[in-house]
UniProtKB/TrEMBL annotation:
It comes from the Eukaryota. Pfam families: A2M, A2M_recep, TED_complement. Residues 97-188 form the Alpha-2-macroglobulin domain. It comes from Cryptotermes secundus. Residues 774-863 form the Alpha-macroglobulin receptor-binding domain. Keywords: Disulfide bond. The keyword Oxidoreductase does not apply. PROSITE patterns: LDLRA_2. This is Alpha-2-macroglobulin domain-containing protein.
């Protein structure tokens, strides 16, 4: 490539001689460069030595000596793109470097300040230096010794969550750091939230009939000089659900310490979540009424039956209202899989999802003129950390892998750099920047997997791709011969190449442009034989994005595949996706909560691509508004749709719609909520330009009955309701529309008195013939309160090869997560052992275990089995 100012100069710099009778304007040379001595002319003016070409320094005023240079490695490359933290802070003032302090001292003055000392017993040495215009650099002669060891210290630990009715032992550690004895008076302070548990003779506590008492409880502890003492403080929360704070103080002759331990009390049973989302459209109406059914009866009792509808005290619910069609923008910073999907995902795919949802939420706020700089800076600081976690599994040859011990993936690499491009924005570069070399190297690697026909294929390690929607298919030609087609992966990579092209450097950009043309021709050739709505949707988006000559044919084919539910809502899916069930009572339509459906994540992704095609072609129309309403109706979470990839694509599509529709400017709504089950509950929320992005949340006091939503004004809003309750009856297990997993879980308790060890055996298999194995899958198990497994031990178990497709593990309090590359059709099992960390009486009676595909759906109910989701109860 050359950058000459005219045609003659361009040919000259390219070393091409042309013979023509055409007129070629010639720039008058003002500089005579001595080529025999190694000088070359700059594009505009001046000369430079040929040995200094592409040396990283600008010898020409127009930088032409550094243009069109090949990619080069540098000594800092590994550090710059692979470091875990991309923060520009030199010192961790909140951690190890707690005493770092900078100041500007006045002439002849003194500075006094206080600093919070870390709560550790250690020895420290302080030093200091100054920079002065007169004296230069000076430092103190001898460091100053300082000890952070207190005379008396107390530490408290225990579970931070438990089930209703359980008794918890809080562990206190008392330390006497003085050379004399101490008497410590421990006080458990009174509270209506908990009571003291009396331990009877022999250390016996009756499980469901323990002797409890309220008020302050004091205990005298003798602590010899330099000794430490361990004390258990048994308590029993007496609230049904919610957060409690346990206050314990220690009084000695040298001082007093008071500590607070917070515990979240959960309802009993396997928790069921029911979500309902409604789109309030008042662009052409002045009044909209909606009635949302609450999926819980007033009483759990079923007459003449030994089972119950739900567990007493386990119900909870809340309502959220936002003017933003994406839902709550930033309920927490950063947005993680736990915040958005309500589950844990560990792996490059999960980190890319977290990067994408944070970036697209920022873009949504930016394009709707709601972005504030303070939240932007805060989010981008977290995005840097997530980006570092993604780059942990980047290879300098250009590919990404999902786990430390897995192989590179074409789909994952393409998906990663597409999100990187979305995250690259000029106004953010001072806080978040992505090296173009990363994009360039990844494109170079991906192009190796393009076939002669123009399609792309996965690496040989992934005959069944990580994302099942990228699975190639065999199709029959007119002569009855079979041909293998990989349309979805080709369209996916074509979208990526088109979007990242501006960041690709050097000759790789030319190669990428050629590959893009071949991929477009391949998809154009396959259009007439496509029947799968998902294939058509992603292909239509790719061809429209690349301005293909067949984009109109692709659009007409896409339009012919649309499906419709009540009220004319439009969507695209491989199988029909039923709308929310409507229950009529007293001539009122009550909208029931939504259940997971077959291929609903694929439907959301396909419909989102279709929405973007319609917006690029026709702008905001009645059809696009109907699509947005359907997308809102199938949400399974306040901030998410079904799973990971579909949520990201839906966020992108809704951001594009919101930018074009400009509904924020016309929104002026008054939304009134009424709960007939709670006397006097009537809340009114006003949404306008000032409160458009504010999250309004209300708790449901009495979880039964229904919710009345009365909206007046103009504009739009989204109302969502979540209802949770616990069940303990196997008969409430709902069979999936299509069973995809078999799952069996057994527990083996140790023979010790307090069941110190539990070995959990998990056996499972994939049930479908097509595809012959699952995609990325997660096994999620709840643990009894007080039991735990170190994540390092879980990772060691993974590395031992205990299961052939087990790739990683994640441990949080009360749960273990096991991540599989795929689940096979034959039965496979693996065991893991958890240990009791804290003394807890009344072992959790009902716990849940789930097995689901990462890209298919999510859920948290032990008794309900949904699409692509197998579960059991133990």
């Amino acid at each position: 490539m050359s950058y000459g100012k005219n045609s003659y100069e361009t040919l000259t710099f390219s070393g091409v001689v042309i013979f023509t009778d055409a007129y070629l304007p010639i720039r008058k040379l003002t500089d005579s460069c001595h080529e025999k001595k190694g000088y070359k002319p700059c594009f505009s003016e001046g000369c430079f030595l040929s040995t200094k070409m592409c040396d990283g320094y600008n010898d020409c005023a127009d930088w032409s000596d550094e243009s069109d240079c090949p990619l080069q490695d540098d000594d800092q490359y590994e550090y710059r793109i692979l470091r875990m933290s991309r923060s520009d802070e030199l010192y961790d003032t909140a951690g190890n470097d707690w005493s770092w302090k900078e100041m500007n001292a006045d002439f002849g003055g003194e500075e006094f300040f206080t600093m919070d000392m870390p709560a550790v017993a250690d020895e420290w040495y302080f030093t200091g230096f100054t920079l002065s215009r007169i004296r230069g650099f000076t430092t103190i002669n001898t460091p100053i010794a300082f000890s952070s060891t207190r005379p008396f210290m107390m530490h408290i630990e225990g579970p931070t969550m438990c089930r209703r009715g359980e008794q918890i032992g809080l562990r206190l550690l008392l330390l006497n750091n003085e050379p004399y004895e101490m008497f410590v008076v421990l006080t458990l302070h009174t509270s209506p939230q908990y009571k003291f548990v009396h331990v009877e003779e022999g250390g016996i506590v009756t499980s469901y009939g323990a002797r409890l008492s309220g008020g302050d409880h004091q205990h005298l502890v003798y602590l010899p000089a330099g000794a430490q003492q361990h004390v258990d403080m048994p308590i029993a929360p007496v609230v049904e659900q919610g957060d409690i704070s346990v206050t314990i103080s220690a009084m000695t002759q040298v001082g007093r310490i008071e500590l607070v331990h917070n515990i979240t009390v959960l309802g009993e049973g396997a928790m069921v979540n029911k979500h309902t989302a409604v789109y309030l459209d008042l662009k052409n109406k002045a009044l909209v009424l909606q009635y949302l059914d609450i999926y819980v009866e007033e009483s759990p009792i079923v007459p003449y039956q030994s089972w119950r509808r739900y567990v007493y005290g386990s119900t909870s619910g809340y309502i959220t209202i936002t003017g933003d069609i994406i839902g709550p923008a930033f309920p927490a910073v950063p947005l993680t899989t736990g915040v958005v999907l309500g589950r844990e995902i560990k792996g490059t795919d999960g980190r890319i999802f977290e990067l994408a949802v944070n970036v697209w939420t920022l873009h949504y706020l930016r394009l709707t003129n709601q972005l504030k700089w303070d939240i932007t800076k805060q989010v981008l600081e977290e995005v840097n950390v997530i980006f570092g976690q993604v780059m942990k599994r980047f290879d300098r040859r250009g590919w990404f892998k999902n786990w430390d011990n897995s192989q590179p993936s074409v789909w994952l690499t393409s998906w990663a750099i597409r999100i990187f491009k979305h995250a690259s924005f000029q106004d953010w570069e001072n806080f978040f920047y992505i090296e173009p070399q990363i994009i360039t190297r990844s494109i170079e690697w991906i192009l190796q997997f393009q076939t002669e026909l123009g399609s792309f294929e996965e690496t040989t390690w992934y005959h069944n791709p990580l994302d099942a929607t990228m699975q190639g298919k065999f199709s029959t030609r007119f002569n009855d011969s079979l041909v293998y087609r990989n349309i979805t992966l080709t369209a996916h990579i074509l979208i990526t190449i088109h979007e990242v092209m501006q960041m690709v450097q050097g000759s790789t950009r030319t190669d990428a442009a050629k590959a893009s043309i071949k991929a477009v021709r391949y998809l154009e050739h396959q259009l007439s034989s496509m029947t799968d709505p998902y294939e058509i949707a992603i292909t239509a988006y790719a061809l429209t994005l690349c301005d293909s000559i067949e984009k109109e044919f692709a659009f007409s084919l896409l339009h012919s595949k649309r499906l419709e539910v009540a009220d004319g809502l439009q969507y695209w899916s491989r199988v029909p996706v039923p709308g929310n069930t409507i229950r009529y009572e007293n001539q009122r339509p009550f909208i029931c909560p939504r259940d997971y459906q077959t291929d609903d994540s694929v439907a959301v992704e396909a419909t989102s691509y279709a929405l973007m095609v319609n917006l690029m072609r026709d702008g905001v129309t009645v059809l696009s508004e109907k699509i947005v309403q359907w997308l809102t109706s199938v949400r399974m979470g306040s901030s998410a749709f079904i799973s990971t990839v579909d949520t990201v694509i839906a966020l992108q599509a809704l951001t594009e719609y919101a930018f074009r529709a400009r509904l924020k400017d016309i929104t002026d709504l008054a939304i009134t909520l009424e709960l007939p089950s709670t006397a006097g509950f009537r809340e009114t929320v006003h949404i306008d330009n000032e409160t458009f992005s504010d999250l309004q949340m209300f708790e449901v006091p009495n979880v039964w009955g229904h919710l009345n939503v009365i909206s007046k004004g103009s504009g739009q809003a989204v109302v969502q309701m979540d209802i949770n309750f616990g069940v303990d009856y196997e008969g409430f297990r709902e069979l999936a529309i299509i069973e995809t997993f078999n799952l069996e879980v057994k527990e083996f308790y140790s023979s010790f008195r307090n069941k110190s060890f539990i070995t959990i055996q998990s056996c499972f298999r994939w049930l479908l013939e097509d595809p012959p194995m699952s995609g990325l899958s997660v096994l999620e198990l709840e643990l009894p309160t007080g039991y735990n497994l170190l994540e390092s031990e879980a990772e060691r178990l993974v590395r031992s090869g205990v299961h052939p497709t087990l790739r990683d593990a994640r441990i949080i309090e009360g749960k273990t997560f096991w991540f599989f590359e795929h689940i096979m059709q034959n039965w496979t099992c693996f065991n893991h052992t958890v240990r009791r960390w804290y003394p807890v009486a009344n072992i959790s009676l009902v716990r849940q275990v789930q097995l689901y595909e990462t890209h298919a759906k999510g859920g948290k109910d032990a008794y309900v089995s949904h699409n692509n989701f197998g579960q059991g109860c133990y």
